[in-house]
């Protein structure tokens, strides 16, 4: 089958083999029934796009995904009919929470018949002021796997824009929903997808003066949460490898800092290096070959580079004071970091070999924890000036602007497509910490639900 027909006939199979699975053809309805008006509680279908570019407001309707026949499944909901509504809810929440759209979801819309998936009742949707329509289906197979179809229609034109299908194990049904949302987001925005991704962070419990800090991971929307470490050693600053197979993090046990690489597939972890002094902020190089970290020796803190498999470290900075951080540019040619060599914490950039170090932040206040965008066009950082705020600037230090204005927001990390910044927020009185996200407009914030307090978030790349 020719590759150019992929979006029409084939779906991306979310299986370990990454093989493609053909979607079964859906029956077309000869006379699609008009969609009746429902008692919507979400304010109608008036979309709102809050991006700096020239977005058009879009009314996006996402009804529940029907099934050909309800069959039991091990997935959430118990059968394919209930699961179809849950899949649509995940798609709806993904598109709503990214800050670009305000869609209407399945709980405020009438259901559709299975045959309508490929033959939408466009006239009825036009009457509801819908401009775009996301429909799909869920089918069960005898082997227990699920097929999830996803279609995007232009209601005004009465035409299909794109479709995909996914064959998943029951426990992976959320991946199909995220892939569907990614398809819609990319087709309408022209941006790269990011919903089918994972987040690593540090789960915190216990009193403020004796916190238990564990490495944990979850989906981009906070679902499928699990702890990786048991909390016997303090875990800090995790980061996903570029190929998503590993997580590097800092571990402190009995005051001894060690950098470990955790293999997600096998569950094994390997020691990369053991610091001779306080150690900070391990970061991957874009090719996954090296890890940057900072280490304090004899009063000075410098940035080092070590092979990801372990070995001899190379010092990249050698100045009095504190040099911390290290975030590579997407092409691997430069590193952004923080240093107090000028008398206060500021942001600097250097070549990947440590040469040509220069300061780029010259605005009021201090600057810390810089992180280069995967798009290469901006650097996010923590601005310290009275309170801690998340800010962004271009790689030359210009066009600085704030994205948040709370009491203590810090440690930004980017979504895979560079459109959302994730960070952790500390509450003023309680000291409780949580994982938050904000889009590049600074107007759309959301808190991720985690079972315990959270800090040091890290957003991984889109799953293969």
Write the layout of secondary structure elements.
Blueprint: H1 6-9, E1 10-12, E2 20-22, E3 60-61, H2 80-97, H3 122-127, E4 132-140, E5 146-154, E6 159-168, H4 173-189, E7 197-205, E8 212-219, E9 226-227, E10 234-240, E11 246-253, E12 256-263, E13 269-274, E14 279-284, E15 290-297, E16 300-307, E17 314-315, E18 323-328, E19 334-339, E20 346-351, E21 358-359, E22 366-372, E23 379-385, E24 387-393, E25 401-402, E26 409-414, E27 420-426, E28 433-439, E29 445-447, E30 453-462
Parallel strand pairs: 3-4
Antiparallel strand pairs: 1-2, 4-5, 5-6, 7-8, 7-30, 8-9, 10-11, 11-12, 12-13, 14-15, 15-16, 16-17, 18-19, 19-20, 20-21, 22-23, 23-24, 24-25, 26-27, 27-28, 28-29
Helix pairs in contact: 2-4
Summary?
It comes from Novosphingobium cyanobacteriorum. The chain has 464 residues and is mainly beta.
Q: In oligomeric terms, what are we looking at?
A: single chain
Tell me, what's the shape? globular
Approximately how much helix is present in the residues? under 10%
Rg of Cα set: 24 Å
What is the percentage of strand-forming residues? Answer: 35-45%
| Biggest sheet layout | 4 strands, mixed
Parts with pLDDT < 50 across at least 5 consecutive residues:
1-56
Quickly give the structural class.
Answer: mainly beta
Mean pLDDT: 87
**Distance between the terminal alpha carbons, to the nearest Å?**
22 Å
Please state how the strands of the largest beta sheet are arranged side by side: 3-4-5-6
List how many beta strands DSSP finds. 30
Distinct helical segment count: 4
């Amino acid at each position: 089958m020719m590759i150019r027909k992929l979006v029409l006939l084939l779906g991306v199979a979310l299986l370990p083999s990454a093989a493609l699975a053909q979607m079964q053809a859906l029956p077309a309805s000869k006379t699609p029934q008009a969609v009746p008006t429902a008692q919507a509680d979400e304010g109608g279908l008036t979309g709102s796009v809050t991006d700096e570019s020239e977005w058009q407001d879009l009314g996006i309707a996402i009804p529940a995904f029907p099934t050909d026949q309800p069959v039991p499944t091990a997935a959430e909901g118990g059968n394919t009919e209930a699961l179809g509504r849950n899949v649509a809810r995940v798609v709806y929440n993904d598109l709503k929470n990214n800050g670009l759209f305000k869609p209407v979801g399945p709980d405020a819309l009438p259901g559709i018949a299975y045959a309508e998936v490929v033959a939408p009742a466009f006239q009825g949707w036009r009457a509801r002021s819908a401009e775009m329509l996301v429909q799909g289906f869920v089918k069960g197979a005898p082997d227990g796997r699920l097929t999830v179809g996803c279609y995007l229609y232009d209601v005004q034109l009465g035409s299909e824009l794109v479709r995909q299908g996914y064959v998943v194990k029951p426990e992976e049904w959320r991946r199909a929903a995220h892939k569907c949302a990614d398809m819609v987001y990319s087709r309408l925005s022209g941006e790269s997808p990011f919903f089918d991704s994972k987040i690593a962070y540090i789960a915190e419990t216990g009193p403020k003066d004796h916190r238990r800090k564990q490495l944990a991971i979850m989906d981009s929307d906070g679902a499928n949460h699990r702890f990786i470490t048991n909390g016997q050693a303090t875990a800090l600053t995790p980061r996903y490898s570029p190929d998503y197979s590993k997580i590097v993090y800092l571990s402190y046990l009995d005051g001894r800092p060690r950098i470990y690489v955790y293999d997600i597939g096998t569950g094994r972890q390997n020691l990369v290096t053991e610091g001779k002094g306080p150690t900070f902020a391990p970061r991957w190089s874009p090719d996954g070959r090296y890890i940057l970290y900072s280490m304090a020796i004899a009063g000075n803190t410098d940035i080092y580079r070590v092979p990801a498999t372990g070995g001899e470290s190379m010092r990249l900075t050698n100045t009095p004071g504190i040099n911390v951080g290290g975030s590579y540019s997407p092409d691997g040619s430069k590193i952004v970091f923080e240093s107090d060599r000028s008398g206060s914490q500021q942001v600097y950039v250097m070549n990947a070999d440590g040469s040509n170090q220069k300061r780029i932040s010259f605005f009021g206040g201090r600057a810390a924890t810089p992180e280069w965008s995967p798009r290469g066009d901006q650097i996010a950082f923590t601005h310290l000036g009275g309170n801690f705020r998340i800010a962004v600037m271009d790689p030359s230090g210009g066009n600085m602007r704030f994205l948040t204005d709370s009491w203590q927001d810090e440690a930004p990390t980017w979504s895979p497509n560079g459109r959302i910044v994730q960070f952790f927020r500390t509450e003023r009185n309680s000291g409780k910490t949580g994982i938050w996200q904000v889009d590049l407009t600074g107007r759309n914030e959301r808190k991720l639900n985690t079972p315990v307090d959270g800090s040091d978030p890290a957003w991984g790349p889109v799953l293969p």
